[in-house]
């Protein structure tokens, strides 16, 4: 019993696939008949307008296609195998065709969407990695700038200290140079004063000696004869001194 049911189910599935492939053909075959019927109706009446005729034609085509599908031998045979009337069997087969279509679309999406999601995820991860690398580089640059700024404060303090030291040394050198120049000027002035004082003393002594000689000469009243005698005595003393 179970084997017979399985065989019927397999046969029904195969017929359903066959029906799914033959349904468009049945409807296509039903369409020319309905077209001919609609054309003859429109020609016979001659009173309906073209849009209304097109609407009626499309409705008749749809009704004719559905009717041909319901009354097709495959539908009747498959419905008889499953214990269903042609109308119910056609509805079931239409739903089955829709499920097959949805399944095919779902399968295609299931094959495509993971790849798309994977590519999107990889792109997002790549962007995250690039952003992380850029952030780390920015942090490294910021750290380098902060380190330079820290060193800059120290360098400024060192330069200020060196400038203060150089200014103090320059000031001390200037003071020493001024003191040396002052001492030199004082020594030169003292030497000039000493030389002038010595010259003045010599002049004063010479003047005093001249005055003394003049006064002595005036007091002695030496005559020319006395002058010759004194000279002769002085010459004699010199001669005796040279002999000795």
TrEMBL record:
Protein name as it appears in the record: ATP synthase subunit b
Naturally occurring in which organism (per UniProt): Terriglobus roseus
Keywords carried by this UniProt record: ATP synthesis, Cell membrane, CF(0), Coiled coil, Hydrogen ion transport, Ion transport, Membrane, Signal, Transmembrane, Transmembrane helix, Transport
Family note: Belongs to the ATPase B chain family.
Biased composition (Basic and acidic residues): 53-69
Signal peptide (from-to): 1-28
Role summary: F(1)F(0) ATP synthase produces ATP from ADP in the presence of a proton or sodium gradient. F-type ATPases consist of two structural domains, F(1) containing the extramembraneous catalytic core and F(0) containing the membrane proton channel, linked together by a central stalk and a peripheral stalk. During catalysis, ATP synthesis in the catalytic domain of F(1) is coupled via a rotary mechanism of the central stalk subunits to proton translocation.
Disordered: annotated span: 27-69
UniProt feature, compositional bias: Low complexity: 37-49
Compartment(s): Cell membrane; Endomembrane system
Any single GO CC term annotated in Swiss-Prot or TrEMBL for this entry: plasma membrane
GO molecular function, one term: proton-transporting ATP synthase activity, rotational mechanism
Pfam families: ATP-synt_B
Regions annotated as coiled coil: 142-206
Positions of transmembrane segments: 92-110
């Amino acid at each position: 019993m179970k084997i017979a049911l399985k065989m019927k189910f397999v046969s029904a599935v195969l017929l359903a696939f066959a029906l799914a492939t033959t349904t468009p053909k049945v409807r296509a075959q039903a369409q020319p008949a309905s077209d001919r019927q609609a054309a003859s109706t429109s020609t016979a009446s001659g009173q309906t307008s073209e849009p209304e005729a097109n609407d009626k034609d499309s409705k008749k085509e749809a009704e004719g296609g559905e009717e041909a599908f319901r009354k097709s031998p495959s539908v009747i045979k498959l419905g008889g195998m499953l214990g269903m009337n042609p109308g119910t069997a056609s509805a079931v087969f239409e739903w089955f065709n829709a499920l097959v279509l949805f399944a095919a679309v779902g399968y295609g999406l299931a094959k495509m969407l993971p790849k798309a999601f994977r590519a999107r995820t990889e792109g997002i991860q790549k962007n995250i990695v690039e952003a992380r690398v850029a952030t780390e580089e920015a942090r490294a640059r910021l750290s380098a700038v902060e380190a330079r700024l820290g060193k800059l404060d120290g360098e400024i303090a060192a330069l200020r200290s060196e400038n203060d030291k150089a200014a103090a040394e320059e000031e001390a050198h200037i003071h020493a140079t001024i003191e040396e120049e002052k001492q030199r000027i004082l020594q030169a002035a003292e030497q000039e004063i000493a030389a002038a004082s010595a010259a003045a003393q010599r002049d004063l002594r010479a003047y005093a000696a001249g005055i003394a000689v003049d006064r002595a000469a005036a007091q002695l009243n030496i005559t020319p004869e006395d002058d010759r005698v004194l000279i002769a005595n002085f010459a004699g003393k010199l001669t005796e001194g040279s002999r000795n």
